[in-house]
Design goal:
Length: 249
């Protein structure tokens, strides 16, 4: 074997040794990086978990995984413990989603998949599509509710209490009734037609007792409109407008 061949062989061996060294160093560095993070055990949904699933029935629907603590939200469950075993899921849990204590509620506050917030009551209002932002409002939406009514004695901004009269001699007014309300559900009374028309639906919202009284009274004496709120929407209570002030007169 001549010197040139020996040199080539040595160069190949050195390259192999160098590559192996780099590989081992990188793997060692990755291992040190992982070991430097505090890992915690979390519960993850193996499949879709329907709303209303009891905590003590989750054994076959969840699995434990190890994740870096820095990437795990607060109140994430590591096991089905005593804090949730007697509760039910307040909404559907998607496959692969982490389970937290906030996802559970008492069974008494859940009705057909609707979780009623603590201290609130659920009130349902029938609506047409044009009364609920053209059908854009859905479960979880935040809405402002306006009331259009016939004015008592034809002036001021007090409802007459006899529904929305269309007699030209009567004055009507529109005012903000409730500024921000959470929608719990929207159920179509009749499925949309094949042409895409959106018809009547009943909208259920979560409100305090005082707001429930306003909402029910407004429904009985006027016409309600649900306005969809965005993240930066602004609504302010006031006297509203009537037939006389509609154009600023």
């Amino acid at each position: 074997m001549n010197n040139r061949a020996i040199i080539v062989i040595l160069a190949v061996l050195l390259a192999l040794v160098g590559s192996a060294g780099v590989f081992l160093y990188v793997r060692s560095a990755d291992t040190r990086a992982i070991e430097g993070q505090q890992a915690v055990t979390v519960l993850v949904a193996k499949d879709r978990i329907p709303a209303g699933t009891a905590g003590d029935a989750l054994a076959d629907l969840v699995e434990q995984q190890r994740m870096p603590k820095s990437s795990v939200p607060e109140n994430t469950l590591s096991s089905v413990d005593s804090s949730v075993v007697d509760l039910v899921t307040s909404s559907e849990v998607a496959e692969g989603q982490l389970l937290t204590k906030a996802m559970f509620t008492e069974e008494a506050s859940l009705a057909k998949g609707i979780s009623i917030p603590d201290g609130m009551i659920a009130v349902t209002v029938p609506t047409e599509a044009w009364q609920r932002a053209g059908g854009l409002i859905q479960k979880g939406s935040k809405v402002a509710i306006f009331d259009t009514f016939t004015v008592m004695e034809g002036k001021g901004n007090t409802p007459a209490g006899d529904g929305l009269s269309k007699n030209y001699e009567h004055n009507q007014s529109t005012r903000l009734l409730l500024g921000s309300v959470e929608v719990l559900s929207v159920v179509d009374e009749k499925k949309a037609a094949e042409d895409g028309d959106i018809g009547k639906a009943i909208v259920t919202v979560a409100v305090k007792q005082a707001d429930a009284e306003k909402l029910i009274h407004g429904q009985q004496t006027g016409t309600l409109y649900f306005a969809l709120l965005g993240g930066k929407s602004e609504v302010t209570p006031g006297n509203g407008v009537d037939n006389r002030t509609l154009f600023g007169n």
